Amino acid sequence: MEQVKYGSYRWVVLVIFMFQVVLTQFLWLNFAPIQPTLEKLLNITDFQFVLLLSVFNIFNLLLSLPVGAVLDSKGFRFTVSIGSIIMAVAVLLRLKSDSYYWLLAGQIGVAIAQPFIVNSGAKLASTWFNKNEEALANGFASMAMFIGMIAALIITPIIIHIGLFPIMVIYGGVTVLGSLLFVLFARDNPSLLTTLKAEEQGYHPIHAYKRLLKMKDMVVIAGIMFIGVGFFNGITNWLDKLLGPQGFSEEQSGVIVGLLIAGGIVGAIVIPILSDLIKKRKPFLLIGTVSAGVFMYPLIQTKSYTTAIILGLILGFMVISLLPIMFQMAIEVAGERLTGSATGMMWVFGATGAIVTIYGMELIGNATSDFRNSIWLLMIMFAIAFLLALTLPETYGGTNKSSGE
Fold first, then answer.
1. Does residue 212 sit in the same domain as residue 193?
2. CATH number where 264 lies
């Protein structure tokens, strides 16, 4: 049996991985804040614009299970390198910026690359970090996602005046650089190479997913992931319609969305640190699901911009920050051997939740002629999430680092 070591190089690997995660989220949303400009430049419809963004949920749903199998059969570095190479090629397609279909092709390429990169955070945490740092590593990986989102929403509108082609050149150059850095400097934990090789050779994806589906706690965590990712996509996608009747402008709603994500960035670090300090996961899951129900309804009822900002920050801090906790619980329930497959399963549930929630809220809003009624869908979902969380045992310490099981 190998003596597992967690050297300082783990931080190098984490940082260059985070850069790749930032880029995937940045490239996903870089067009979102310039919809009118892009539609005018390319003479496209609303549907064509939305397709540039929605392909990411589609491919996340389609690819998360296969990517999970690749993670557990080929390892962290191999999987992320594949995603990085695909992403580097895809951004080059976007250089043909005067053509909607070349931009769409580039977005599809990035969407294919995204699960290879984003879904690998838990695998990195389980192989490069010891038990007391795993949740923190998952927190940093989750934080990178939110940083990428905010950066896209802020930077692109500021520099759009230089023209779409120069922007695509800049974004493409940064992406290629990030991919090169990862391929050149990322490593699998050298002290685990023999163990990982043996595990990878014995991996069978069908058996792995059958085993995960037989784990009640794993299915419960995935169900909560369905609700959590659904909430994030639903609230960020429709917040302007939820707040509009209270007198908030689209710009104010956009600021509140940004602050909600900012709260999630802070929480993604603070909550895992607290979780490791008290050696508990379940209390944070329970508090987070309750917080969602407590603060969502007041958010869409208030007419005070200041109050809405405060509520958005609290929601982000308490709810969005549960993402790294859920990934850590998945490692501890499924075991490090199946970390990639467990993460893939969670993202399939999450992507499904995003699609169901976005269209479910729209259906309720249109049917009742008051979009604020759609918030009850989220309230009911989080009541279910709380009940599901109650059934979970405390998972801290559920993984044996020395054996990798």
1. no
2. 1.20.1250.20
pLDDT of residue 339: 87
Q: Quick one: 156 and 38 in the same domain? A: yes
Q: Which residue type does 22 have?
A: V
Domain enclosing residue 344, as ranges = 204-405
Q: Identify the pLDDT of residue 135.
A: 87
- The tens digit of pLDDT for each residue in 266-297 reads 999 999 999 989 999 999 999 999 998 889 88
Collect the ranges in the chain with pLDDT lower than 50: 1-2, 399-405
Tell me, yes or no, whether 287 and 376 share the same domain. Answer: yes
Same domain membership, residue 212 and residue 194: no
Both 179 and 295 in one domain: the answer is: no
Among 201, 223, 243, which residue terminates a domain? 201
Domain count, the chain: 2
Reported pTM: 0.86
**Backbone phi and psi for residue 267, each to the nearest 5 degrees, phi listed first:** -65, -30
Give the residue from 140, 166, 201 where a domain finishes: 201
| CA torsion, ordered 19, 24, 25, 27, to nearest 10 deg | 120
- Give the integer Cα–Cα distance in Å for 178 and 17: 9
Is the same domain home to 25 and 51? Answer: yes
